[in-house]
Amino acid sequence: MIGKTILIVDENQTSRAFLSNLMREKRFNVLEAGSGKEALIVAWRDEPDLVLFDPIFSDMRDIEFIQKLRQSARTARTPLIALSSDPAPARREACLNAGANEYIVKSSGALAALDEAFDRAFGGEAVSAEVPESVQKSRENGLLIVFLSAKGGTGTSSLCANLAMNIKDQNPEARVVVVDLVLPIGSIAQIVGYEGNLNLVTAADLPSAQTNGDYFLRELPEPDLWKFQLLAGSPDPQHGNNLKFERIGQIVDALRASYDFIVLDIGRSLSRISLPLIQQADLISLIVSTDLSTIKLTGTVWEYLAGQGIEDQNVYAILNRAVGLEGLTKTEAEDIIGFPIRTTFPYMGSNFALANNLNQPIVTKYPKDTASIIFKESAAEMVRLARQLRARKS
Ligand SMILES: Nc1ncnc2c1ncn2[C@@H]1O[C@H](COP(=O)(O)OP(=O)(O)O)[C@@H](O)[C@H]1O
Ligand SMILES: [Mg+2]
User: What is the spatial distance between Cα 323 and Cα 261, in angstroms, rounded to a whole number?
Assistant: First the structure.
């Protein structure tokens, strides 16, 4: 596909710049237009190989734009891909009926969908023969692993940071990033001892053209002993309130394009932002503590997730004895939540909090503890499982 010319039409300058950059990275020649009328002029003058457009124009109706392109001999057969900020089914249908080849909604899954649409548009023309390995590699998204729980205080953030550390330790060649999405205030930075200014809120403030995969690879801190790179969470509730939510999808997409493992701490939030991420995840690490109320709540959360199309094969449930020795057994917990628990972490008393306070991973601070063995084993199992599930998907 190298050398093909793409016309990018988007009235939003930031969005246009982001897409142009992305297309240049994929070695396309890029033309741009900032309005419907300008786009028609460029399309008929330069005859691009494909038009990628946001169908919301202020100077023309979406259908009119598509029909005009279809009616001209110069663009009658040009692939037209709508990349739309409007998820409404009515607009999708109207655009497709008017002659658009594809209608993709701008969302966190859009870039993957776009790649597939391009493959279809160019008739599966061998990408592999032409694209350098480095570029090709960036096309396979990294494995997405999300950590969540039904309640706070179950050890979600501690397990997230420690398991990610072990994943990197066991796969030193892999790029591993941890993203703290817990609002209004994150906690992974505190666990690993990062005090810098780069976090989810400040990153979301930057223009999307800047926060591409290379930016994160270059800029994200790699806290001592932890080995992974961190995109820290909101440092305080005030910042959390200023977070530009709509940027999270693009940020996660950029990370997925450049890292092999993207590990998200979602905490206990099931929201419009976190749900699509959970739905996309290769592996969902659901943290359960042993007290009855958390276990019951986990059952409820799971029912909700299952109703949202999430399959139990993607769930990696962890029973964490965070609250002490009392509580339910694994079997009792499984009976209530309705699916198997894959691993159980022992109660570590104040040792866990101590390691956290010293900003040390458990396997570094207590290498001989049973918990360290379990951390290593479950990290390996999670990687194995995530890879298996991914292979099955494709
Ligand atoms: N297995 C465990 N044994 C003892 N303490 C634990 C264990 N797991 C977590 N903790 C402690 O529980 C507290 C809450 O953990 P945290 O990871 O912040 O939970 P969450 O992110 O779910 O709110 C921390 O002080 C942590 O050190
Ligand atoms: Mg937490």
Answer: 29
Topology of domain 143-393, per CATH?
A: Rossmann fold (3.40.50)
> What topology is assigned to 5-137 in CATH?
Rossmann fold (3.40.50)
pTM: 0.69
Q: Looking at ligand 1, which residue's alpha carbon is closest to its atom 25?
A: 353
Query: What residue spans define the domains of the chain?
Result: 5-137, 143-393
297 phi and psi, to 5 degrees?
-65, -35
What does the alpha-carbon distance between residue 39 and residue 32 come to, in Å, rounded to a whole number?
8
Give 7's strand partners. Answer: 31, 51
The domains spanning 5-137 and 143-393 adopt the same CATH topology: yes
**Residue 2 in this model has a pLDDT that exceeds 70:** no
95 CA distance to ligand 2 centroid (A)?
A: 43
Q: Is it the case that residue 136 has pLDDT exceeding 60?
A: no
| Local confidence band at 134 (pLDDT 50, 70, 90 cut-offs) | very low
190 vs 123: which has the higher pLDDT = 190
Residue among 158, 192, 325, 347 whose CB has most ligand 1 atoms within 8 A, to mutate: 158
